[in-house]
Amino acid sequence: MKIIDTATGKRILQPGEKLKSAEVKNELLKRDVEKGLEETEHSPMDPPKAYDQPGKLKVSFDEMEKPLKEFVEEHKEVIEQVDLFEKALVQFKLSGYKVDHKINELFGNFFKYFDNHILPHNEKEEKTLFPVLNKKLLAAGEHSVGQVPVTAIDVMEDDHVKFIQLGALTFNFFGIATRIQDTASRIFILDTAYENARELIELLKLHIYREDYTLFPLAQKYLSKEEFEQLEKEMNLL
Fold it and tell me: Which of 17, 52, 124, 158 lies deepest, with the highest CB count within 10 Å?
């Protein structure tokens, strides 16, 4: 679908002249094949999903070193708790924000688990795996192009900060709502708490997915046996 003939420099398609739709489609397909993008390029109207992983590293659980297996097993427990919290949250919304004993218990259990298990799990990753893996990713060129290189570790650490922020906001908004007498104001605060809770849930799920299927396989690829042994020692001290 040439508009200018590169050999003669003459215009082939005159201003205002339209091409047949079949010609356009064929030419676009031709371009994709020439660029090798027929399977990887996404239209702005059809972007890749958050959980899509083109060219992902495939490492089974059995192939992972012991420290990575420990993180994966802890992730499974986190997902179980997140699922329970999500079900309670949906029921809470559907009931018109009416708190019963069961929902109150499930909410309380989740926030206790968040403080006593999720945050310590994140801290363990930050103190043991993240520093050594970040150095490996920078050395291997597994980082963004720019003045300040960004690795997958930077993204994961940003998520950890967002967990703390969203967890605190959600917990505090739920607490404030119980002390508000005005119905309209209470509902507004509960809506805000609900939306923050939904965002926390989705971020937790996506974060765990990216660690299990992208970050940990990268660790398996770049860290040596000796480095994993050192990781195990450090994790046992926490």
Answer: 124
